[in-house]
């Protein structure tokens, strides 16, 4: 790898990260535009805001998880190509649908359709992230830090299955589906130890 | 080129890229604010959201293409002046009209005027990008990587012609115009090989 | 600390700062979307905009204070871990509630509930910042620049008490609570001298 | 100036620039949210959009001018302190009022009050920029590149006078005031040659 290629790579990786950060930051933040202040001026008027706030907190958490995992993932990335750029755009598109799904669910917290649609957006985001990981794995050899860090991606697979289960369950019991989504979020709140482990291992246990 | 000038150049280029990224990221993302959740709470209420979602996906793709091409273009840029800064601002202005055009088309998917206006925004963006490229070519000698990378810019010219054709066709058959826009987007989904080729060629010293 | 670890640290710290900046910048700026132009076209129509503008100015100031303090804090940070990343996300979540609280108060400037809610958002943000500082202190030894810079965090503690006082007072006299919030903002307008002192002291080697 | 101080300075300057860029990018872009698509679906329905589009283009240009000048200004900055950070926040606050003024004027293009308010926002931004320049001059010696670059700041003073004139004239003839604002924008479209000259001079005429 020549110096010039390395510099181009770091520029590309840096700009990809910066762009991803900007989009995720905006997606996270514009959701707050749907936390409209109530028409009245009393505490009782806050009641319809409560479910919106809870759904917002859940969506904020999911987006924070994606930012966190994307950040850890990029640490061990050594190559990027056009397919990676587009897979990343696909992830950003999927994540950008979160505010609309959040807004709908927040207004109709106990209904089936919004909970199904919310689950579909979660599933779409998980698939997009999976495709981004595949695009990166295609560029990195089997023994690379990235390949080791990803491993069998069990957590990602289980999450996708949980989303599908949530979507199906939502057709009968929306509140149980909501519980499944919350459970997945909690499971991910711990940052991806696989990649952290590889990084620390690479440091020869000096951290 | 002295070291100090080089540093100033990299700072300017970096800040120009960062600013461009921020604006494109915001333009991409605020479009989602028009994906308003439906008034009702059933699946049938999603019907008017479908055309909005499709137009949003198309606009997201066009903006992603511009980000991608801008990114590849900047790789081979060696000089920047005031005219480049303003040409870039012109591009950002043109791209910033995308959400309004998207919102109008999404509500009236089969009508003439929104499809014409959408095509005009695409055409304006293409012209602005063309002017940015011209401003850059004026600063780079004939044999420079940038000049080689741009070449005759056939893809850019054909796209502009396609937009004009789409605008004219939309006066009679909006759906055919929509097909033309989608076709241009697909043609650009592949990143600009011309510039990628030059970069890679420069690495192997066989360009 | 190996070179590779140091590089990873600077990348993480840089990306954390950039992401924080993006979210704070968006939160600050989308508040202006609630400064809707009046329906009429005369000067008298501006009257309902005045309280909105004043509350916006106050919220802008609080967010600027957080940006400033976050910036000074990060100067002396030498380590970051997953807990810090999540504590930072918690701070961003708390700050992201500012626009909704601002919008409500701006429409009902003399009412109790909006002033209480505004104070709760201030308090939540202060608690989140406190938890971020704790997460950082857990990573830095007692004599580190960060630990010295934080010290007993008197200003932070007094502010939190003032917010609680403001919330309680607002139940009886909203305008006095507003005065308390403004007072805290003024007290913080001076950048955090503790950290600035440490930095400057480190320069002159007399700390 | 020790190496550590220099690094802190570059970090601060970089983060200040990045934050400023983010806010200006958002302010520029959220204005497009007021370019609401017309209710109807024909070309005639676009008529009320035209004045909005023109005012948006003017505001976009003013913000682009501020970005450009801020960028050139920061090139020659060698020191930053807390006062500079706050003066910069003041500038961002003033600029953030642009979308509201733009939205009001766009709906009532021929009325007095919106044109006066628009001029007041321009004047406020000019004053804030002036205060930022003063804060920077207080940190840089008389013969510094920054001091030489600013000089007597004639263009800035004349612009402020023009805004005052526009505000007064708007009380009688809004359209003439609009012409004055456009004139100032055109005068600034050329990037600040004073600073560019100093930079190029510092390069010993090798650019």
Quick tags:
9 helices; mainly alpha; 207 residues; homotetramer
Task: Please summarize what this structure is.
The structure is a homotetramer of 207-residue chains. Chain A is mostly helical and 207 residues long. In chain A, 75% of the residues lie in helices and 0% in strands.
Structural account:
The structure is a homotetramer of 207-residue chains. Chain A is built from 9 helices and no strands. Chain A has helices at residues 3-30, 49-75, 82-96, 98-107, 112-137, 145-150, 154-170, 174-189, 193-202. In chain A, α1 runs antiparallel to α2 (49-75) and α1 runs parallel beside α3. Chain A is globular. The interface between A and C is large, with 39 and 36 residues.
Largest sheet of chain A: none
> What's the gyration radius of chain A in Å?
19 Å
- Provide the helix percentage of chain A: over 70%
What count of helical segments of chain A does DSSP give?
9
- In whole angstroms, the N-to-C terminal distance of chain A is 28 Å
**Helix vs. strand class of chain A:** mainly alpha
Number of strands of chain A: 0
Let me know the average pLDDT of chain A: 86
Could you list the spans of chain A in which at least 5 consecutive residues all have pLDDT below 50? 200-207
- The proportion of strand residues of chain A reads under 5%
> How would you sum up the global shape of chain A?
globular
Note the quaternary state here: homotetramer
Q: Most extensive interface, residues per chain? A: B-D, 37 and 39 residues
Element pattern of chain A in H and E: HHHHHHHHH
């Amino acid at each position: 790898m020549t110096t010039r290629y390395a510099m181009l790579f770091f520029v590309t990786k840096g700009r990809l990260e910066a762009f991803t950060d900007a989009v995720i930051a905006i997606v996270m933040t514009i959701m707050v535009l749907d936390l409209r202040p109530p028409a009245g001026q009393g505490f009782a008027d806050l009641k319809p805001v409560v479910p919106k706030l809870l759904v917002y907190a859940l969506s904020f958490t999911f987006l924070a998880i994606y930012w966190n995992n994307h950040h850890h993932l990029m640490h061990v990335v050594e190559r990027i190509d056009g397919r990676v750029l587009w897979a990343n755009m696909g992830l950003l598109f999927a994540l950008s649908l979160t505010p609309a799904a959040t807004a709908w669910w927040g207004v109709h917290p106990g209904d089936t359709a919004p909970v199904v649609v919310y689950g579909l957006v979660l599933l779409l985001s998980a698939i997009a992230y999976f495709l981004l990981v595949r695009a990166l794995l295609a560029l990195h050899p089997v023994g690379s830090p990235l390949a080791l860090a990803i491993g069998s991606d069990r957590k990602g697979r289980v999450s996708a299955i949980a989303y599908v289960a949530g979507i199906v369950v939502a057709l009968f019991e929306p509140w149980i589906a909501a519980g499944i989504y919350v459970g997945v979020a909690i499971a991910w709140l711990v940052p991806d130890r696989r990649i952290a482990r590889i990084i620390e291992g690479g440091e020869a246990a000096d951290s």
